[in-house]
UniProtKB/TrEMBL annotation:
Signal peptide: none
SMART domains: C2 (SM00239)
Domain C2: 7-105
Annotated InterPro entries: C2_dom, C2_domain_sf
PANTHER family per UniProt: BON1-ASSOCIATED-LIKE PROTEIN (PTHR32246:SF74), INGRESSION PROTEIN FIC1 (PTHR32246)
Superkingdom of the source species: Eukaryota
Protein name: C2 domain-containing protein
Source taxonomy: Eukaryota, Viridiplantae, Streptophyta, Embryophyta, Tracheophyta
Species annotation: Lupinus angustifolius
Length: 179
């Protein structure tokens, strides 16, 4: 059974030449009903208000059918309580999911942001990596099964307790006991 999504580790690094005076944050939309948001930007300690840094890592569940992912820089207006979009970048998934790029490799990318009128409004810098399912720590676990009756999704053998052989066979949880 094939997975209907993949997990991306996206680190929103920073933005530059952004024209914001209020608290800015980034919303990531991976062509699904889910969206992911960073915390508001941290103070970078410089006098340059056009450079904002987030340095926040998000695990994004990206549908397999998705053709693009959208990054929106928004800012909160503390007096009105509403958020306004400062800039948007819509990025083709093929830009970072190329066949020649190995799984688990980290790519750092920069994209131009545009406002809703299409005018340039800064650049966003982020890193992206496809999370491999086997990265989940399984020390001491001989096998882990996704759901009853489905295929074995990962197995790790502890060298001290076995001879290094893993065998898999289907099983049924509620199968009637016939003797």
């Amino acid at each position: 059974m094939a997975s209907s999504s993949r997990i991306l580790e996206i680190t929103v690094i920073s933005g530059e030449n952004l024209h914001v005076k209020d608290e800015a944050y980034v919303v990531i939309r991976p062509e699904s009903i889910n969206c992911y948001a960073t915390k508001t930007a941290t103070d970078n300690g410089s006098d340059d208000s056009s450079f904002i840094s987030w340095n926040e890592k998000l695990l994004v569940n990206m549908p397999m059918h998705a053709k693009s992912i959208t990054f929106e820089v928004q800012c909160k207006n503390s007096s009105k309580g509403a958020a306004r979009t400062v800039g948007v970048a819509r990025i083709a998934v093929s830009d970072f999911m190329e066949i020649c790029v190995a799984e688990n490799s980290l790519q750092v990318l920069s994209y131009r942001l545009r406002d809703w009128e299409g005018k340039r409004n800064g650049v966003i810098h982020f890193a992206v990596r496809v999370v491999v399912v086997e990265e989940v720590p399984t020390k001491g676990v001989v096998a882990s099964v996704k759901d009853c009756g489905e295929k074995l999704i990962r197995a790790r053998v502890d060298d001290k307790k076995s001879c290094g052989v893993v065998a898999s066979s289907p099983f049924w949880w509620n199968y009637p006991n016939i003797i």
